[in-house]
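Anyone up for a design puzzle?
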């Protein structure tokens, strides 16, 4: 060390004080749109080119030598509201939506029907991707094979992919297979005796259905968190704009229970999420859990006489305007789903995260001057008289229309809730052959 230091100091003194560093440049950003103006259509008539060849006609836009300039590309889709920021050297920008387009965009069911079509590997039907579950095929090590598999030498398995929001987790596989967003379809795919396989030597994990349900619940929490972040970043104090989320009072909740209707314009969904009780052992409330890992086991004992409550009930927005003998079953009526939080989110950590996100949205609305939140610090409700009809209930009303989409996208939350409802629906098994109707076309049907 004593010999190296003098030579190192001498070498540093001989170095020039001013060093020339190469200029640091960021990589070129990929354009968001391939759209560019197309030249006018050329003429291929020989008389228009005199005695010259068409290859010599206007070289910069020649349709033969420069054919790429005449390719047409789609422009960027419209956005609910137009952003002033624009990148340099961009020839295309998204235009703002019209009132009619914003009305369509505010409907979660129209957006689900407008998603790309894919074929289900279980029923061989072509359905929008929002009605399907994306399953990727991944290779796992041999030390992680479940004991329930009859063929432990299978090197591949199904993994749910693309269920979480891309802001949190990107897709693992470029190619994947799709099946119905139903627990029946996942269980049918997990049956070793079935012949409907997406590929050979692929086994389904026995807990694949529970894994998909856990990620669908996580997607609901992610959409709520993104909505809260968006409102928190772009919220302004203006009472003229409509509210996205509010808490129903006891009087409004009694009207829903007594009349069986949800008479609120622009109602998208109603979530009943009561606050969680403290643990009997730890005397603490559960912490919010938004992890994709398997949830921890519940320490509370199961109830002795559990009350069977459906996860979702559809309520009409008004009383029936048609009699039973006129129009019943012909003219559909508008219905609003009412979700039960304890049934859809049985895991206490996820339910605590759902309740915390709803309270955060209410706080943002309160800070913007649009709604009064009946909460104290820590999320506790204020003490009021039980006979007071303005006392808040445990029901949260989610709204969406052509005006609310200018503030936030509540339809994405409704899509995530509806997908969870489809998956947990204990209704008819759509994987059976009898469930297929005559107007549906599959590749297995022979053309006449």
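Challenge accepted. My sequence:
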């Amino acid at each position: 060390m004593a010999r190296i230091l003098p030579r190192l100091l001498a070498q540093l003194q001989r170095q020039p004080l001013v060093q020339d560093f190469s200029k640091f440049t960021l990589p070129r950003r990929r354009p968001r749109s391939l759209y560019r103006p197309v030249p006018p259509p050329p003429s291929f008539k020989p008389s228009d080119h005199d005695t010259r060849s068409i290859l010599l006609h206007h070289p910069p836009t020649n349709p033969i030598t420069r054919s790429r300039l005449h390719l047409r590309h789609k422009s960027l889709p419209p956005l609910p509201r137009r952003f002033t920021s624009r990148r340099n050297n961009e020839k295309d920008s998204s235009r703002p939506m019209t009132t009619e387009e914003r009305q369509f965009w505010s409907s979660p069911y129209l957006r689900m029907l407008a998603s790309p079509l894919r074929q289900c590997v279980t029923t061989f039907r072509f359905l929008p991707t929002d009605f399907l579950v994306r399953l990727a095929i991944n290779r796992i090590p041999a030390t992680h094979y479940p004991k329930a598999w009859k063929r432990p030498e299978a090197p591949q398995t199904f993994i749910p992919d693309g269920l979480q929001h891309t802001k949190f987790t990107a897709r693992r596989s470029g190619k994947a297979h799709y099946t119905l967003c139903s627990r029946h379809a996942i269980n049918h795919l997990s049956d070793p005796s079935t012949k409907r396989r997406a590929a050979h030597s692929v086994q389904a994990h026995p807990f694949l259905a529970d894994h998909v349900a856990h990620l669908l619940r996580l997607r609901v929490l992610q959409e709520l968190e993104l909505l809260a972040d968006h409102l928190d970043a772009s919220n302004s104090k203006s009472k003229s704009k409509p509210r996205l989320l509010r808490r129903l009072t006891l009087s409004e909740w009694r009207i829903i229970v007594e009349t069986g209707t949800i008479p609120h314009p622009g109602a998208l969904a109603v979530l009943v999420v009561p606050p969680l009780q403290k643990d009997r052992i730890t005397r603490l409330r559960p912490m919010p859990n938004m992890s994709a890992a398997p949830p921890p086991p519940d320490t509370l004992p199961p109830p002795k006489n559990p009350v069977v409550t459906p996860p979702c009930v559809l309520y009409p927005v008004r009383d029936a305007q048609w009699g039973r003998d006129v129009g019943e079953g012909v003219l559909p009526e508008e219905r609003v789903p009412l979700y039960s939080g304890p049934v859809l989110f049985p895991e206490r950590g996820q339910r605590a995260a759902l309740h915390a996100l709803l309270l955060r949205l209410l706080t943002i609305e309160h800070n913007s001057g649009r709604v009064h939140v009946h909460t104290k610090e820590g999320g506790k409700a204020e003490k009021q008289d039980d006979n007071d009809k303005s006392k808040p209930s445990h029901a949260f009303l989610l709204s969406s229309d052509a005006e609310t989409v200018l503030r936030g996208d509540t339809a994405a939350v409704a899509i995530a809730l509806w997908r969870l409802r489809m998956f947990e629906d204990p209704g008819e098994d759509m994987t059976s052959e009898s469930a297929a109707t005559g107007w549906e076309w599959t590749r297995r049907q022979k053309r006449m």
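A detail worth pointing out: The chain has a mean pLDDT of 79.
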